[in-house]
Amino acid sequence: xxxxxxxxxxxxxxxxxxxxxxxxxxxxxxAGLGKGLREFKKAASDVKxxxxxxxxxxxxxxxxxxxx
Length: 68
Known about the structure:
By secondary structure, the chain is mainly alpha-helical. The protein has a domain at 41-68. Helices cover 84% and strands 0% of the residues. The protein is built from 2 helices and no strands. It has helices at 7-21, 26-67. The longest helix has 42 residues, at 26-67.
C-alpha cells in the first residue's frame, strides 16, 4: 500500500508528526486531510465525466457528418 515503506518507517513518521503537532491536533489534521482527499476525488471524477461526455458528443457529431 505504501510502496517500500515498512512498519518501522511508518511508526517513525507517525511519531515525528505526533511530536510536531501534538496529540490534540492529530484528529483535526486527519479530518482536514480526509476532506481534502474527498474533494480531490470528487473533482477528478467530475473532470472524467466531462471528458467522457465531450467525447460522446464529438462522436455523435462526427457520425452525423458522415451520414450527410
